[in-house]
Amino acid sequence: MAKAIMIQGTMSGAGKSLLAAGLCRIFTEDGFRTAPFKSQNMALNSYITEDGLEMGRAQVVQAEAAMTEPSVYMNPILLKPTTDTGSQVIVNGEVIGNMSAREYFACKKKFVPDILNACRHLAEEYDILVIEGAGSPAEINLKENDIVNMGLAEMLDVPVLLAGDIDRGGVFAQLYGTVALLEKKERERIKGLIINKFRGDKSILDPGIVMLEERTKIPVVGTVPMLSVDIEEEDSISERLEREGNKAGQKGAQKAAIEIAVIRFPKISNYTDLAPLESVEGVAVRYVSAPQDLGHPDLILLPGSKNTMGDLKWMRTSGMEASIFKCLKKGTMIFGICGGYQMMGESLADPEGTEGGGTMRGMGLLPVETIFHKQKTRTRIQGKLEALSGMYEKLSGAAYEGYEIHMGRTMLTGEAQVLAKKEEILGVCRGQAAGTYIHGIFDSSGTADGLLQMLAEKKGLDGAALKGTDFREYKEKQYQALAKGLRESLDMEAIYRMLREVKC
């Protein structure tokens, strides 16, 4: 049976996911079969496994770091927010329905057997499990029936590392306050504290670390610097959504050769589709939530949405749709993925009440119509884009590998070039507009390079200068850098001693 260690945090965004990914890579580099595990994940970024099941992307990233195939056992419960007070509940990769926060809180203990079964499967296959908590273990209003933090640690009898975020300030108060709010048996389970996201001279922290250790009786096993790595964050609290441009455009989008504006819907999902474009030097990718900030980009990208009709309504009432049409009149191109693709059609209908019911006029940019159904499409796909002409000729025959994850079917209603198809049409293009259901379409260098060259040539630039590296190779270098940074800042000998103490 596997050994296990758990990463908890003083708050959401303390860096648990990245620390877990880094430990996954370190243990793998040291010769151990390693897997991530998170019992319950709330996020709008999800992934489809080889067997057609849905899980959170954070554990996919951690599985990639561990150099193993993602499995729904790594994330048995996924909550995808649909409103401010409710979520779609996915258990073992299958949708079981929508629940309000109160409804889910009242019944979540019934999913404990699913959690333990998933952990047991992983423990039989791997040597080490790196388990991630959620939020904070000291949320005293949620501690009853906890299945993701200390409640889970007790069920599995695993040691805990508690991480605090010094970049937000008050890290000593974060760590001490969290420990102080825990019960005695919970405090005893914490074997080490981590100060995360530090900038500056570490020696300045030493007096505070001594006092923290004296008051908590728990050793600080590492001060982790703000690591310069480009690895997917867990969900829409990501700093990625706040940036004005990627590495190439940090001094202003006007400095970049190509500018891409991504519409930040209230229920934006799977925005990790854009990560390959962000990694290309000379390309600025920024996320826009107000029409006055749209500017005049070369490309507007409509990403996925967990509530397509609701987010389209937001675009109309906020004035974003009108601003997009002004950009299109000036020659800007537009590309939609999944929910964004659905919005670009002529109409959307929801006869079964999947998104609240009713019908809506689409943006009218593509000759397609979407009818929502309660059955979710979940499948991995690969192939080549169709032979295209005109503006999208650079994408002709480009290989892709990705996945579909959406409610409803989209049907062609008029003349357009088919972008991709399998049993059904997976995307179309017409004029300046294109859309597809293929998540991960830009992970393949052919599609990303083709799109960027098309945008560059439209501006009279040399598109060859914008060719990016293979995205899988790029990510591998990031995982290696993450592991190296953690090895240099964590007491790995102490962490291995913790692993020898308890089994999963």
Task: Explain how this protein is built.
The chain has helices spanning 16-29, 57-65, 101-107, 112-125, 150-156, 171-181, 184-189, 206-216, 275-278, 308-318, 320-329, 339-343, 445-458, 471-489, 492-501; strands at 3-9, 34-37, 40-42, 46-48, 54-56, 77-81, 86-91, 94-100, 128-132, 160-165, 190-198, 220-225, 258-263, 268-269, 283-288, 299-302, 304-305, 333-337, 347-350, 358-361, 368-384, 399-412, 417-421, 425-430, 433-436. It has 504 residues and is of the alpha/beta class. It has 2 domains: 3-231, Rossmann fold (3-Layer(aba) Sandwich), CATH 3.40.50.300; 243-468, Class I glutamine amidotransferase (GATase) domain (Rossmann fold), CATH 3.40.50. The protein has a 7-stranded mixed beta sheet with strand order 15-13-16-18-25-24-23. A hairpin with a 7-residue loop joins strand 19 and strand 20 (358-361). Helix 1 (16-29) runs parallel beside helix 2 (57-65), helix 1 (16-29) crosses helix 14 (471-489) and helix 6 runs parallel beside helix 8 (206-216).
List the helices and strands and how they pair.
Elements: E1 3-9, H1 16-29, E2 34-37, E3 40-42, E4 46-48, E5 54-56, H2 57-65, E6 77-81, E7 86-91, E8 94-100, H3 101-107, H4 112-125, E9 128-132, H5 150-156, E10 160-165, H6 171-181, H7 184-189, E11 190-198, H8 206-216, E12 220-225, E13 258-263, E14 268-269, H9 275-278, E15 283-288, E16 299-302, E17 304-305, H10 308-318, H11 320-329, E18 333-337, H12 339-343, E19 347-350, E20 358-361, E21 368-384, E22 399-412, E23 417-421, E24 425-430, E25 433-436, H13 445-458, H14 471-489, H15 492-501
Parallel strand pairs: 1-9, 1-10, 2-9, 3-6, 10-11, 11-12, 13-15, 13-16, 16-18, 18-25, 19-21
Antiparallel strand pairs: 4-5, 6-7, 7-8, 14-17, 19-20, 21-22, 23-24, 24-25
Helix pairs in contact: 1-2, 1-14, 6-8
